[in-house]
Write a structure and sequence with these properties.
The structure holds two protein chains of two kinds. Chain A is of the alpha/beta class. Chain A contains eleven helices and eight strands. Chain A has one domain: Rossmann fold, CATH 3.40.50.1820. In chain A, strands 1-2-4-3-5-6-7-8 form an eight-stranded mixed sheet, sandwiched between helices. Chain B has one domain: 2-Layer Sandwich (Nonspecific Lipid-transfer Protein, Chain A), CATH 3.30.1050. Chain B is globular. Classes of the chains: A alpha/beta, B alpha+beta. At the A-B interface, helix 5 of A face helix 4, helix 5 and helix 6 of B.
Chain lengths: 284, 128
Amino acid sequence: MTHTIEAICGRYVTLDIAGRSQRLYFEEAGQGRPLLCLHTAGADTRQWRHILNDAEFAKAHRIVAFDMPWHGKSLPPEGFETEEYLLTTETYIATVLAIADALGLEKPILVGCSMGGRIALQIAALHPGRFSGFIAIEASDFQPAWYDIDWFHRPDAHGGEMGAALVSANIAPHAPSAERWNTLWMFMQSGPGVFRGDLSFYTRDASLVANIGLVDTSISPVHILCGEYDLTCTPEDATRTHKAIAGSTLEIMTELGHFPMSENPKRFRPYFARALDLVDKTGA
Amino acid sequence: MDAPLKPLLDRISATIDASPHLLRLGALVDDSVLLEVDGDAYYLTFHRGRLENIACGQNRKTPWRFAIRTDAAALEKFWQPLPEPGFHDLFGLVKLGRASIDGDILALVKNLRYFKEILALPRTGPRA
């Protein structure tokens, strides 16, 4: 009987974020220039499984991904049972900076998808020089919800299953069935109210619009990737954002949607390889 | 009364009946849905996930929980095996302005996977 043990290693780190103790799960693979990967709303580190398992990328990069508090295998903080989870820009930034410090990542490249891409651009604007480059996937300055985020946290329905059915709109029809359903499974597993709390940040916090002009690509390069089947962050949204960041680069990805690294890893790989090459060459 | 989509809807109904997976997904679906295509009305009555009745033709007396309104050309694109961007999903049609959803949208969203999967059946089966 054949079997495969993957190169990914998972561990936990307990750290303080904005005055609260958090136990976070992270995975890593490879050695070299650090790459910190941020998952989308309502999901977790498993979205990066194919990037983490890519031996070529791992040759020269220490690839790290972590589950945000409340997500995946990271626990919510003490007292969560009476708390409404609502992600904010401030907490999100504090989380990313805290884990980069805790794991000793020296000027990493920040890679984020969807809300992870949004916060990557916000960090590029507000913390110049802290990261050596940014790959912002399915990322834009802002777009309001085309759905009601309260659908996804109700006592009379399963928010995870509804969330998965909604976000399936953002997956390209070309995605292999197994990877499509692996991608949707994470949303189905999402804790109650977590997807809604992420979407509160993603669809209501427009603060990046005012900050986007602060992004200085002469300090750290910014490369934006966007799938043509993404209904949430459309190629138009990504193009507008690219035009607002002088010196940024953009590639529209065909036959891909909002979760490219997870929904169709083979199709995504060359786009990501080009992005990494670009940021590796031009980053500080 | 024009009802060009009726044969296709009959085949969708038969496919649902033969699909334990769809019947399990739709086990709590007991609703009437108005599907309107180029102004032709189809009142779809679901019971425990089965599409039990298809009434054709506009009828103001027929109640419905939610309505999906679109056009035949959009549906033809929607039913391609690999639809072009936007035509790949019901909400994509709405975003493109080629469909609208009215009424109790939450009733749709609570059973969104079921409704999406039955609407997409013609992608893999015979079309009208």
